[in-house]
Amino acid sequence: MAKLENGLQEIIKRAKSGNQIAFSTLLDNFWNDVYGFQLKRTENENDAEDITIQTFSKAFDRISTYDEAYEFKTWLIAISKNIHIDLIRKRKRSPLEADGNNEAIKRVLDDAPTAEDRLITEQNLANLLQHIKKLKPHYQEVINLRYFHELSYAAIAKELNEPVNNVKVKLLRAKKLLAEVIKRSKQ
Question: Is-contact 11 22, C-beta < 8 A?
Answer without folding.
Answer: yes
